[in-house]
Amino acid sequence: MQKKINKNSKIFLAGHNGLVGSAIYRKLKFDGYKNVVVKTKKELDLRDQKRVFLFFKKKKFHAVINAAATVGGIHANNKYKADFIYNNISIQSNIIHASYLNNVEHMIFLGSSCVYPKNSKQPIKEKYLLSGELEKTNEPYAIAKIAGIKMCESYNSQYGTNYKCLMPTNTYGPNDNYDLLTSHFYPALIRKVHEAKINKKKNITIWGNGKSYRELIYVDDLADACIYFLKKKTKHSLINIGSNEERRIIDYAKFVIKKVGVKIKIKLDKKKPNGTFRKKLDTNLANKYGWKAKISLDQGFDKVYRSFLSNS
Ligand SMILES: NC(=O)c1ccc[n+]([C@@H]2O[C@H](COP(=O)([O-])OP(=O)(O)OC[C@H]3O[C@@H](n4cnc5c(N)ncnc54)[C@H](OP(=O)(O)O)[C@@H]3O)[C@@H](O)[C@H]2O)c1
Fold first, then answer.
1. Is 33 a catalytic residue?
2. Euclidean distance between CA atoms 312 and 298, whole angstroms
3. Per the domain annotation, does 223 fall within a domain?
4. 85 Cα to the center of ligand 1, angstroms
5. Is the model more confident about 1 or about 79?
């Protein structure tokens, strides 16, 4: 019988400085969780199995949220393939196995919508995992994340643990990566439009033909889902987290231009890759368990742009 999580439960939040981890940290603090343990990469490199195992043995956590990973957009995924597969497999294997060895009862493992096949039926249901070929540009990252899902499922089946895998769609919010080469498309778009405004430029260039569809979720909604499902008893361990906010990349560009209030043209760099054409998640399962995203694209933009301006 597993002990329920309460406000005094000892929780290890891995990756608390990142986009997703920092939102989860804010939410845990706001909700009154008193015993949340965090470590920067400098303090504890989660790829170091020996140190991770010692850390877990000493701390005796009740629950773990793993938001630590090597993450990036299409360019970073394509260029640093070895880092993406090695770092992610190491981090997640160490955390999952150390959790099992030290009787951690509840875990959230974060994956991504790119674990699903490139030409998947839409909207993508959890059961479509491994039903077709992956997108080549992020295959090593997706393979690492699929290994994490299969590890959680296997430990649940063999050892009776309650390790859940949440598959979020593209996420944005404060503490995102705005580097134009390694970031995801949406923070890059916000930066390009903002800089065009400041530098009085007449146009921005976006990668690919702009016709690919993307679904976006504001990071506070994802943080809410992580804590909701950490506590929730579910039959399923693989659960999609989406928002139903889906548009073509070109339409996001028009949206951001309108919100920032500039008159600029959009140029397309068709030599750059388009990525997967569409990856709309089916979120019926999460909805059936009582969870739904609440923050609209409009509200999310206002929040993220405020935080972008205060840091630029
Ligand atoms: N961003 C998205 O659009 C998106 C979408 C779907 C799913 N996700 C998932 O959400 C999770 C978090 O993503 P994110 O966007 O928040 O990433 P992020 O902003 O890059 O943050 C990653 C965090 O991981 C930590 N980290 C990386 N390598 C580490 C290591 N070797 N040892 C210890 N800590 C390490 C970093 O710590 P330091 O700050 O100390 O370096 C950082 O806090 C990932 O699993 C990702 O797959 C993200």
1. no
2. 21
3. yes
4. 14
5. 79
Query: Which residue is listed with tokens 């990071």?
Result: 219
Q: Is residue 82 part of a domain?
A: yes
Amino acid identity for residue 200 in this structure: K
List beta partners, residue 65.
13, 108
- Residues near ligand 1 with C-beta < 6 Å? 15, 17-21, 40-41, 45-47, 67-71, 87, 91, 110, 112, 168, 170-171, 184
Number of structural domains found in the chain: 1
The reported pLDDT for the residue numbered 2 is 78
| Domain of 139, in residue numbers | 11-175+216-244+279-294
What would the pLDDT profile of 279-288 be if each residue is shown by its tens digit? 999 999 999 9
Supply the CATH number for residue 122's domain. Answer: 3.40.50.720
User: Is the residue at 225 inside a domain?
Assistant: yes
pLDDT for 166 equals 98
Q: For a substitution probing ligand 1, which of 13, 16, 19, 146 has the most ligand atoms within 8 Å of its CB?
A: 19
pLDDT tops 80 at residue 29: yes
Q: What is the Cα–Cα distance from 44 to 24, expressed in whole angstroms?
A: 19
Pocket test for ligand 1, best of 27, 39, 70, 71 (most atoms within 8 A of CB): 71
Give 72's pLDDT tier (boundaries 50, 70, 90).
Answer: confident
187 part of a folded domain: no
How far, in Å, CA of 263 to CA of 284, rounded?
39
